[in-house]
Amino acid sequence: MKQRCIHKIPNRIPNRLVRFGFAAGLLFSTATATAAGQIAMVSNDTTIEPGEEFSATVMLNGEGQYDVYFGVTGGVLGETIHALDANGALIPWKPEAGPPAKLRDNVDLASLSVEQKNIAVFSGIRLDGLTGSYTLYAALSTPGQLDFPVIDVLKVEVKSSVSTHFSLSGRIQVTSNTAKDNDVNDVNAPELSNNTDYIAQRIPNPVILGGYVNKPGTGPSGRFEQLGDTDDYFDVDLRQGQTILLFITNPNLVDNDLDLGLFRLNNEGIASLIDASTGDRETEMLTVPDDGRYFVLVQAHSGASNYVLSIGQNTTTTALGTRLTDDFVPGEAVVRFKPESVQQARSAITRNTQTQNDGTRRSTLLTLDSTRSRTSSTGGLSDMKFDSPELRHNYETLMAIKKLRKDPSVSEAGPNYYMRALRVPNDELYHYQWNLTQINLPQAWDMTTGDPSVIVAVADTGVLLEHPDLRDNLVPGYDFIDNSGFSLDGDGYDSNPNDPGDQLPGGSSFHGTHVAGTVAAITNNDEGVAGVAWLTKIMPLRVLGKGGAGSNYSIEQALRYAAGLPNDSGTVPAQRADIVNLSLGGPAVYPGFQQLITDIRNAGVIIVAAAGNEDTNLPSYPAALDGVVSVSAVDINSERASYSNYGPTIDVAAPGGDGTPDVNGDGMPDSILSTIGNDVGFGSGIALTFDGSIGTSMATPHIAGVISLMKAVNPDLTPQAFDDLLKSGQITNDLGSTGRDDYFGYGLIDAQKAVSAAMELGGVAVPEQQPQLVVNPASLNFGLSRTSTTLTFSNGGDGDLQIVNISDDAGGFLSWEGNGLGNYTVRVDRSGLNIGTFTATITITSNVNTVKIPVILQVGDPNATGDAGLHYIVLVEPNTLETIDQTQATVTNGVYEFSFHNVPKGEYIIAAGNDFDNDGFICDVGEACGAYSTVDRPTPINVTDNRSDINFSTGFNVNFVTTKAVEGVETTRPFRGFARLDKKHK
After folding, report:
1. Catalytic residue among 152, 231, 275, 460, which?
2. pTM for this structure?
């Protein structure tokens, strides 16, 4: 607002004052006053809160004797205002109480000094009442009379004393080993080219990096739609044996194909290609051959896609890509033609090849013309310097095979591999499941992997019944959502608990599928993940629908069904469940729910529920009810997860994960990996996938799964018997304060102890297990800034176990504190290290076995922090999922700070993420994404006051997509995600 001008007021009462005055019930004289005295206000029109103090300046001039008054008109009358009298005392005044308040009595203007004339301040003015539009005025009057010949006004708008609009703010954290591609398609993101090895982008190691590449003329509109951004080069120090993983996130892999290259400087100082992964699936992988400085290239072979590049340590995985250094016959391809296209294919494809077979029903060996391959333009990596002629020949072979695969007459094409023995982990993603070893499941599996007669009911969003890592472990369930607005499957109660998706922004959560996989994913099937209990059966019960919402009543009917009790479905299962998993909750349940829990327990069913993700000690129901096992969450270091609720109702803790750190340096966030679905970009179909999530929802199925292992060895285990074992400390490892505490309950569940205790309780001889040193986590990553972390030493068997020696080969930058079994604090001292990446191994020797813990860290810019790229923070209406407000932020010291102002009272989801591909939606796969309180289950915020504590984390969103998606899926991208306000997409 502009400063009011200091001006003379005519020696009459303006019409506006007469109007205001009568509205206030005051009598103002219209008599002509002496022209010698003038008054003006020097102040801004203003808006204040009720009771807020402000000041106004009155300027007096001229000559003559006058009384000086002030008053107020308009707004709500009868409310008190205050000002200072001539002696500086605070005086109250109410409009209905009589005349305006006198500030100065019988002032001789001519006797005032210059300072006194020009500065006459009355301060401490305060409008204490209700909302309204007030006009404050000052006046000169003949002494003893109220004729007000000269006047000026100040307009004051007072806000409502009961505000309906608020401010929301918070911080979004990103881990230090997170990085982003410096040139993405988002026109708002800063740009710094990394298109050649000469201007390669320096990145940390380990790292989780998100980016975007595209061929010219492909992808959404944006910075690179026309020109293209084909190559992203990254400069990084790597160590022998490290794994480089590239996740291509566009689901249409036929038209959007990315490759991965690895370069190092040769003797001439030129970056030459030493390996590449050039498959046409969703994952490319390379292994680092030696310590040294490298250039990693992510290249768009065709189309456009977001991607996530992960560099981690000491991991093994099934290589899905086709690598330059794979063992195959250069210049040859094994091809199978489509039967209806054999003749056409032979005339077209074999024109430039030599075929070894002309059959129509079997594979054909094509000998490729290497001379033609070299002279033809294959583009991409072939334009680069190769480390050897053999690698160039291999590359030309793989490029030719890529071209064959895209030919419409070809059904299959691949290298002619040499076959040798290959050792791979059974479950390809098991090495990412740190959570299973944290609770000593491998030791428990030596005693039991479960029993198919034990059933865990998962009351949730339903389950993807055809998921290949679940379907053989499912028993019939039921759908208890009777509200068609939430069911999304077109009907009410039915016997089909398949999850159709719950329409969460950014794609459906498939929350129940993730929970079910943690309990009992099929294990030892050469695919996906391992479950807590390999043979346990899952009874899927659908109680949560659109947006992950469900009612108390639906959950009650599901619980009654699971326990074999009468319910509104009119049926009961052939065999009741032994355990019910409730990875759900809310602030209240109706009073009868406690009796329901008692009835379920009396039927012999153990109920396990999530404590909630609001980082509060307020109870969450049904977890807080008597008779329910309430589960809090810990991270990879067995510390309370930042989001986990706590309080007097917590019974036990289990791994819930954390979305930002990579403490073990495997190149992935320390979340809980399990079965899930993905309906983003698959039209009406759903890809059956694996992905990480965090929350007490993820901790809870660990407990349900361990209880099912206990039931496998002791079928007579009752709810009360389990409670007694828990309270005795026999089945947990104590964390926090000795005994039960409000963060961890009775401690972190220990599967080996739990199975042993159940066997002993049932009178079954516990098989003797040799003592074994177990150390968690299995590797350590200090990144750029971490200075300390925790290792836990435990006995994975029985008998005497002694720590004999601890050593390392770090040369002095590592130290540790601890004694015997238990927690050890490991510290790193970077003061004597140069800039670069460093590795070491901690060797722990016991009287039985030796464990080696790999360590990795970086030394770089001391001010360097994680950067997940430009973030859009959106305020979303939870029912319509419409974005109603947006702000954006860049990272500062590993934190994004945000705020929304003037937010109307109501409920909102707050989410944040990138839009690297510039398609108008944040949180696509391959883009960073976060939400309050967790990204997989955003918690609506009930806005009734200003809040500054809306804190959560962000990180890059990847998943492990299987090839077994729903038949006939389309590859067009549907409406999905959190929409940006500044992009209009439908």
Report:
1. 460
2. 0.64
